[in-house]
Amino acid sequence: MSSLAIVHSRAQVGIQALPVTIEVHLTNGLPRLSIVGLPETAVRESQDRVRSAIINSQFEFPLQRITINLAPADLPKEGGRFDLAIALGILAASRQIPKEELSQYEFLGELALNGNLRPVRGILPMALEARKAQRYVVVPIENASEAAMVSGVSILPIKTLLDICSHLQQVDSITPYCSEETPNPTVLNHISDLSDVRGQHHAKRALEVAAAGGHNLLMLGPPGTGKTMLASRMPGILPPMTEDESLATATIASIAVGGFDASIWGIRPFRTPHHTASGVALVGGGSHPRPGEISLAHNGILFLDELPEFDKRVLEVLREPLESGRITISRAAQQAEFPANFQLIAAMNPCPCGYLGDPSNRCQCSPHQVARYRSRISGPLLDRIDLHIEVPNLPRIELRKDTVRTSSAEVRVRVIMAREKQLERTNKANNLLSNQEIERVCVLNENDEQLLDSAIERLGLSARAWYRILKVARTIADLDDSEAIQTSHLTEAITYRQLERNKH
Ligand SMILES: Nc1ncnc2c1ncn2[C@@H]1O[C@H](COP(=O)(O)OP(=O)(O)OP(=O)(O)O)[C@@H](O)[C@H]1O
Ligand SMILES: [Mg+2]
Ligand SMILES: [Zn+2]
């Protein structure tokens, strides 16, 4: 006598949740359990958990030959995420629960030995796919709020294996999960305010331009002038996220080590990795590639404070995502691609001691030391940073004088208006414009074209810089509510590249 049951679940590959079918086949013969379909150690360990969970839930573990096939075989399958589906497959094949209705569900969850469910990662992308497949989603109760971020899908949260068995046996049905409240993305109260920063108007203006168009920004200046302070004010002036952006960003968090956090739904990420962070932590990786900081910063900010202290090789890796908005991670076992459309904000001192150019003349660094320090940041990386600004040491008097200061809320209103114009025009932030789009929407008059050409030549900038200056000029015009890019907009955009020349 033989019997077959089929259960649906999903594997995690990059940010995708790919379908996995668990086929459980029972035949008479010596009791033995084998799992095929290239399972890894973790899946093999799941045998023991599944067996204990079934017995501890007062079911019988069939004394037959059990063959479990996880298909397709070439998908990577990790962790205990298939425990629940495997256990239900065994119970259905041995007719302890009905198997007819299983096809309407997708299951994800790790089992504890006592039959309780443990949360797993990657619920959000799974729920999105389950919605397309029009199936119910059965997940550990801890994962329910994450699954509920996807509207139009029925989520059945469970605490134990027995919960779902009773439901399938129609003994005790589970009430679909309803989220208590929709998260409010405008809660920004905890973020520090721009009005705390005295002086540094040039830097604040650059911050506003960067926020409005999603442009990258580098701040250069001696210690204690407010660089870190300014950068930490960015989240408070950024435009709100669209629904699609929120979903894409939350999906990455969902599969990352830290996991999904509903309380930050709709708030642009602000990631501040330390310079001692490993390459894998920053760009992603591992044998089952996980997203790194640059992907967790997707649709938000990656703040690299003390830029030259970062591993030079890691900084070079940033070049690709800064251009394409994605990162490809290749490992022997598999290749994964993660979105990484982050806005880079970086800060650094002008020299190893920090005081080069300071009126106090206290810098003792040799030109060679300065050159070596600067060379940690390559030309191609600098080329991708649209706004370079100096944050100088200001006399105390001047700081004290600065009593009426703009708040983050005021700046944010202007940023939102400028961003809306961009979305209307091209459906994206100016930073994401392609070269063709730039040629279409960043048109200069003849004089200004010559002005730009000669500036490019004078500053020794690349063709890439040419396009990037035009994007920044577009944003400055948008902040000025002007459809045409005027000379003043262009010249301001050019001033943000002046510093670069001194750097090589
Ligand atoms: N413009 C400013 N307005 C108000 N406070 C300031 C300003 N600049 C610096 N401060 C004060 O000095 C402290 C140090 O500033 P911050 O950490 O931003 O400096 P930094 O430029 O990042 O220095 P470093 O190069 O050493 O990292 C701040 O916490 C703040 O109290
Ligand atoms: Mg600092
Ligand atoms: Zn110095």
How do you describe this structure in short?
This protein has 504 residues and is an alpha/beta fold.
The CATH level-2 architecture of the largest domain is identified as 3-Layer(aba) Sandwich
The averaged pLDDT comes out at 89
Strand order of the largest sheet: 11-14-17-10-18
Number of helices: 20
Note down, in words, how this protein is organized.
With 504 residues, the protein is of the alpha/beta class. The protein has two domains: 3-168, Ribosomal Protein S5, domain 2 (2-Layer Sandwich), CATH 3.30.230.10; 194-503, P-loop containing nucleotide triphosphate hydrolases (Rossmann fold), CATH 3.40.50.300. Helix content is 37%, strand content 17%. A five-stranded parallel β-sheet has the order 11-14-17-10-18. β3 (32-36), α1 and β4 form a beta-alpha-beta unit. α18 runs parallel beside α20 (487-495) and α19 crosses α20 (487-495). The longest helix has 19 residues, at 408-426. The protein is elongated. The protein binds adenosine-5'-triphosphate (ATP), magnesium ion and zinc ion.
Secondary-structure topology with pairs:
Elements: E1 3-13, E2 16-27, E3 32-36, H1 41-56, E4 65-71, H2 83-93, E5 105-107, E6 110-111, E7 117-118, H3 123-133, E8 136-140, H4 144-147, E9 155-158, H5 161-168, H6 201-213, E10 217-220, H7 227-231, H8 243-255, E11 270-271, H9 279-283, E12 284-285, E13 290-291, H10 293-296, E14 301-304, H11 312-317, H12 319-324, E15 326-330, E16 335-339, E17 343-348, H13 367-374, H14 379-383, E18 387-390, H15 396-401, H16 408-426, H17 435-441, H18 446-459, H19 463-479, H20 487-495
Helix pairs in contact: 1-2, 6-16, 6-19, 18-20, 19-20
The structure holds adenosine-5'-triphosphate, magnesium ion and zinc ion (ZN).
Adenosine-5'-triphosphate (ATP) binds next to helix 7.
